[in-house]
Amino acid sequence: MKNPFKALTKLEWGLWLGSVIAVTLSFLLYSTDMLTLTASLIGVTALIFVSKGMAAGQILSVVFAVFYGIISYFFRYYGEMITYLCMTGPIALLSTIEWLRHPFKESSEVEVHKLTRKEIIVMLSWTVIVTVAFYFILGWLGNSNLLVSTFSIATSFMASYLTFKRSPYYGIGYGLNDIVLVILWSMATMENISYMPMTVCFGMFFLNDVYGFVNWQRMKKRQANT
Q1: How far is CA 2 from CA 54, 111, 154, 175, 212, in A?
Q2: CA–CA distance from 102 to each of 108, 110, 159 (Å)?
Q3: Residue 54: phi, psi to the nearest 5?
């Protein structure tokens, strides 16, 4: 694989550097947990490459899932831990394979896929099943902020499915998930200020995912016209 940083535009460099600076400053001000900082930096780097449709972003997403799962465990966000270690991470790994198998004209950019009606029905059906099942599982485990965590699982599953299917709407799915996670980690920050970097991290995630949706729409039009 080629160096993915060489493909970034000035706007994308600005978005990535801005995200890195925001996360790092929040860490220096509110935390000494290197695990949180490492996870956040990996996460914002992964998303800028995902927004470009590059498989490198999915590889980094797998690494982020492991770090984030560990962080969630320490705060008893078992839903987040299980979601990222058992669902988001594995799906990101499968997405890496899927994206590498479907490049656009042998470039580093993935070929955009249009969802069929059947795929949408499958996604919605599995989202309901997974959400209901995890609501009771997390309640049994004593998960903190149960309702918010359950909604996070629903949005995370849809986003992971859309990413695997190479759909531009992955950005909307993850954008909704980012909003939920900002709320979730804001609650954690009220109890322990050292979790502020995670709140800032998902705020940056939201900006990156919004850009990803916009950029993938451009990718779709450009690929259709080629």
Answers
A1: 10, 17, 34, 28, 20
A2: 10, 6, 19
A3: -105, 135
Other residues' Cβ atoms within 10 Å of the Cβ of residue 190: 9
Rounded-to-integer distance, Cα 145 and Cα 134, Å: 13
Residues facing residue 44 across a β-bridge: none
Q: Dump pLDDT digits (tens) for 69-120.
A: 998 888 777 777 888 888 889 999 999 999 999 999 877 899 999 999 999 9
Tokens of 165: 């299917």
Instruction: Label residue 68 exposed, middle or buried (CB < 10 Å: 0-12, 13-18, 19+).
Output: buried
220 close to 168: Cβ distance less than 8 angstroms: yes
Distances (CA, A) of 8 to 54, 77, 86: 11, 34, 31
